[in-house]
Amino acid sequence: MKFNRNGYTTHPPIMLLLPPFSSTVKTFEQTDLGCKGPAQKPAKIRSYAPAKGLRNMAIAQVETKELVAGVRFQKIGKLYHFDFSGHPELKQGDYVIVDTRRGRQMGQVMGFTAPDEGRQVRKILRPATPRDLVLQQHWEAQQADALEACREAASNLRRMSDVKFVAAQYNYDGSVITFLFSAEQKIDSGVLQKRLQRKFEARIEMRQIGPRDVAKLLGGFGACGITRCCSTFLTDFSPISIKMAKAQGISLNPSEITGMCGRLRCCLVFEYEQYVEARRQLPRRNKRVGTPHGEARVLDQLPLRDAVMVEVEEGGRKVVQREDIIPLEEFRKLAEKAHSPCDKHGDGSCECGLPVGQRQADKLNIPPAPAPKSKEQEKPDEDKPRRRRSRRSRGRSGERSSQSNRRRGRRRGGRRPNQHSDRQDRPDSD
């Protein structure tokens, strides 16, 4: 068995396929590791030319011990930080053994970054050996049989009838096996865990996941015909709402906004901020604006074209670019402000150079802007229909007047007024 300069075996079934890296090595501040917080101290990097047998993978030797290593345990997963001060020879792409909450795991070093202040990180135990890589591939081949045994054991339990078991994952040495399942409600898997513990020598762990994680593990193609984003590059799921679909003008038909997992599509968040920023620079609907075709009303916004659809009184509907729009309301406010006296200064003069109470319009000889006529002013008073009061309002007003009459009578000491004085047909009782 032959080994390359990294200590990995070159045997075909054992060698792991790694993506090719570019010959140019970026600095640690430019490398996107998905870690939170910017790098506080720049790292010193010495780059080497690609060597034969390494598949054109650039090697970067880290000359500082003030960094932490970003380790990934799955192909598309989150990055976890570990201290590699005890192993300064580690490089990007190496496999290491670390201690986690779920036991010892094997992960791949994706890069290096500065540690977060006040955050404790665990140390890397040791670099992975060729024997560890062989053990990992051996136990990965046993995962399908373990998943089938788990499904068979769950079929005999009534509580597990609606549970969907997705995957079984061994750690690199086979000491821990984790079964991933999904269900609509929270499931107590204690009974099933005891039954599986009798069949397997490894420690059993049951983990319930959501529908998005299920789609990420199973993979497949989306409605766009491309491989699902969650199983390609998404390491974390962002919160998504219907508001994002409305901002982008997407139809709210469930078949168009939901993914294969039954939840809102993850791609709705990709261009949401760009749509919001583009709509913010355009006038809103039903707003009066000036256009090259005349004064018009905004019907709809077209953020991708940086334009709006307007309705001209005599020309019909037109598409106008943002730079051709004249904000009439803003100009009217400026004209009103110009005809009002300057009130920014107190006893003395201000930056505008006008004395107290003088108008900017008098200095510039600007005619007063005509006030826009409202719809109520256009209609004559004779044509306006009188508003009839409802029975409830009449009844309430009558009750209030009767209560006020009672109070007045009590204060004056007179006779209590008759509540039914308007009824003349009732005879007075002797």
Compact overview of the structure:
This protein has helices at residues 130-141, 143-154, 190-199, 211-218, 242-247, 254-257, 272-280, 328-338, 360-364, 375-378, 391-412, and strands spanning 45-47, 60-62, 68-72, 79-83, 95-100, 103-113, 122-127, 164-170, 176-182, 203-208, 288-291, 294-302, 307-312, 316-321. With 430 residues, the chain is of the alpha+beta class.
Molecular structure report:
There is one protein chain. With 430 residues, the protein is an alpha+beta fold. The chain has five domains: 1-128, no CATH class; 142-209, GMP Synthetase, Chain A, domain 3, CATH 3.30.300.20; 215-277, no CATH class; 281-326, Roll (SH3 type barrels), CATH 2.30.30; 339-373, no CATH class. Helices cover 24% and strands 20% of the residues. The chain is built from eleven helices and 14 strands. Strands 3-4-7-5-6 form a five-stranded mixed barrel. Strands 11-12-13-14 form a four-stranded antiparallel β-sheet, with no helix packed on it. It is elongated, with a radius of gyration of 38 Å.
